[in-house]
Amino acid sequence: MKFFLSKFLNMNEDFLLLTEQNKQLGVFCASNATTVNEKNSPHHLAAMEKVDNNISMYTSKKTSQSNYKKPIPFEQASVINAAYGSALIELIAKMYCNPSLHFYLIMDQVEVLPYLKRLLSLSRITLINHQKALNPLPVLPSETQIFISVPEFHPKSLTSEYRTYIHGHACMFSTYSWLLSAKKNLPSYFLNVEQNLVLVKHPSDMYKDLSLSYQSPNGSIYSWSRLKNHKVERLEKVFISQVNQLEALLRHLRPRLESTDLQPTFAAIKHQKTVVLQRNRS
Amino acid sequence: MLPITQRLSQQLNAFTRLVTDQETRQQLQQSLQRINPKFNHLKIYQHFQSMARVDELNNFCLSSTRENLKHFISAKVWVDKPKYWHQAHTFDGPVIFVTPHYGPFAIGCLKAVLDMGENKTVNAFYDPPEKNPTTAVYKEVLSSLGDKFNPIFNDNRGLVRALKCLKNKQILTMMPDVFDLSGQSISIPFFGHFTTAMAGTAFLALKTNALIMQAYCVPDNNGGVKCILHKPFQFKSTDDFEQDTYDLTSHLFKSIEQQLAHAPQHWIYLRQLNNRLGLPLPEQPSFSMSKHKILALANSLQLETASIKSALNVANSHVDFNK
Fold first, then answer.
1. Is there a single domain that holds both residue B159 and residue B227?
2. Do B282 and A260 make contact, defined as CB atoms within 8 angstroms?
């Protein structure tokens, strides 16, 4: 009874979160777009939970039962780049039947997003912060580490490296996954719009292709509340606000700083502010 | 005096909103906590009531005949410090009235038009309706007394027009509590944090050496409007225009802060306050948590960080920013 009640509450919560993401998509596109739907995510999550239960019942045998006729054969530690949405959940579900794979979802703190809570409650999916993911992790002999890099979960700023267009809006994304794959010497893949894993040769190609995933009418993205913060327009505002606050802080402290000449710092702040804004607008 | 049925209806509506509008209630609660942790639901109720009264007064201005409106302003709209009002009226030079979007501020502007319009044109500087739809009603309300009022839209030509009006010793009303994160915005202290403000008011005052008077309009208990005036002043400028802009804007917001601490319920943007407050001031205990962010930003801007570190050390001498 308790099990079914918890399932029902989860479903209800995820339904509300999907509604919120639809609202956020509307904000992102400045329209009444509604393409965020559950797709088969609850089914995929249930399949993974079933795998977890089977493993815990027969721990010694380490067997797993999968609903997938063609699970993805993946034996290699790697970085997988994908938008947070139905396609990623489906991919993880297909890989999850391989009990040696352990997934690390890179994110600094848990966000309130559809299905994330259920995803993170699985035994072989762990949330890891950006800093920790870059460092060596303890690894069991039989374990293969898969790092899930979701571009919209990574820090971004106006000086982030990659610019791409989503629904006509310029967005910035960081080089984090590139750094991770280089530092750990792991191959990097991305989940393309046809839902195939493609080896990343150059991150700028990856972002071009990922932008198609974000806009695909067939896909369902569950993280519009995060994506809107990647818009150049919004990042510009954050940048102006931060630089203004730095300048204000120094002006506020100036009467107490008789021995320090802050004029060159103010000139440098003004110059850098102009340079960064102009570079982004050109 | 409001008819008793109307007053009861206003009170009932305010109470209904307090109970049912959970999202707004939460935003107001968070904002009020920033002003004074002792503020409770009564202030939220008073806010809803005040906003209803403002709507009612605006509608009255729109629907009244010019004569009725003149009569209402003469009989029911009053200033708490007539000598300050007189000083602004008789000042031989440009005058800037500064008010936030607070209470029935348009009525205060109409009082200026009625009392001072014979000698000086009263100009109001605000966002054009296409930029901020809530301003659409201002022109109609403020034009209720005829052609002694002149709107100036905050666009490319607006600042030049405003400067010209002030150079002709006219009156300009400015509302600095609306901002746009653009190159013209700055940060200044507000309720223990830095917040964004537009530098336009200070820019115009410094360029014209205008007399500045800050005013706050609040509904009184007799169905009228009280205009609270702060002492008019001219800012003593230095040879550092940017520091002067910062100092004057900070001064203006200090006055707004004082008024909001006393009676926050009349501020139209009260629910936004919580989200408007950014980095804590160095005097706040939470400031030390921000040191890494400040230095990271300075590094990303390729600034010479030694002077910033020494400034931060002075700011909070018990925190060692070199660690």
1. yes
2. no
